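Technical annex, item 7. During the second reporting period the consortium partners agreed on a shared format for inverse folding records so that results from different sites could be compared directly. Each record opens with the tokenized structure and is followed by the designed sequence. A conforming record, contributed by the partner at site C, is shown below for reference.
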């Protein structure tokens, strides 16, 4: 089900790279602080570990089809400046960057445990529609790499 190289990256390389992040690391673009980025990624992974209980759009909406095409075409995220300011950033959930980073391995483990324990479940998100586990994993892989690059933890993206 899972691509071993992506699983290995998310389970090992991702948490290791975060250990080199400090709270004063400046983003190359965007408004997020290092801790906001880590908490954002924990939340993204967490959103994929529960079964969607609502009614699924059928047929998929235009937005869902666009997101599915985006994933199939490589999920290369680009920064799009907006009118938002740092005042729009969500409140932090953890008391420190270090505490947030320490929660990443558990978030990744929960994500993969959910996939492994529910192989017949078709993942669904209101903005993505139905996805195969492999497509959802690819999206998370690329999303995480994008934010690591945003904070210079990866030299190259994609």
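Designed sequence (site C submission):
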């Amino acid at each position: 089900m899972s691509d071993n190289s992506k699983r290995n990256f998310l389970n090992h390389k991702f948490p290791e790279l975060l250990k080199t992040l400090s709270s004063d690391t400046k983003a190359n673009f965007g408004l997020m602080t290092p801790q906001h980025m880590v908490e954002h990624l924990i939340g993204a992974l967490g959103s994929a570990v529960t079964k969607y209980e609502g009614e699924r759009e059928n047929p998929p909406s235009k937005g869902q089809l666009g997101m599915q095409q985006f994933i199939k075409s490589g999920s290369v995220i680009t920064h799009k400046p907006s009118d938002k300011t740092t005042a729009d950033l969500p409140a932090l959930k953890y008391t420190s960057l270090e505490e947030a980073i320490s929660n990443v391995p558990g978030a990744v483990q929960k994500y993969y445990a959910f996939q492994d324990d529910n192989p017949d479940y078709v993942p669904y998100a209101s903005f993505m529609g139905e996805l195969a586990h492999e497509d959802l994993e690819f999206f998370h892989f690329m999303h995480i790499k994008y934010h690591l690059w945003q904070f210079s933890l990866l030299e190259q993206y994609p």
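The mean pLDDT is 96. The helical segments are 4-18, 34-46, 62-72, 97-102, 104-117, 133-150. All partners now use this format for quarterly exchanges.
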